[in-house]
Amino acid sequence: MRPLLALSNAIDLLNEKIGYVCNLLVLLACLVSAANAMIRYAFSASSNGWLELQWYMFAILVMFGASYTFKRNEHVRVEIFYLTLSDRGQLWLDMIGTLFFLIPSCLLLAYLSWPFFMQAYNVGEMSGNAGGLIRWPIKFVIPAGFVLLALQGISEVIKRIAALQGYVTIDAKYERPTQ
Question: Which of the ends of the chain has fewer CB neighbours closer than 10 A, N or C?
Fold first, then answer.
């Protein structure tokens, strides 16, 4: 179980670091948005590239932030039924839902979005807007985001199995296993 918990910790650390980058992107997106609006209204000048940059940052926040949010147990959950279960029942429900719904869905979406990225990469896709940005890097964010979410799902399953076997307890606030 220790090697699996080490893998879980490595995945958690990766998504934690990505979460910090996403937190910085929130601030950066606000600054770019404010600067773009100020330049547009004050100097009657603007660029589609700045607007697309905001969209790109938002896309990264959504796709990469999902795994960070899942790691922190701050995702949306319908808790009417969940809260009536025992701690052990909650662990089982989390594990079954992650194993049979989240991970397969994420891997399928990553697989299906890969050709979308590859097509853009192969042709060197650029924005159709004047002053726009290259498109293929942001299209890579789609499969990468789903892979990161699937990896975090694997980490969560490992932690649930360890908790069910009594190796660790799960800190409900941050979903970190404690030994």
Answer: C
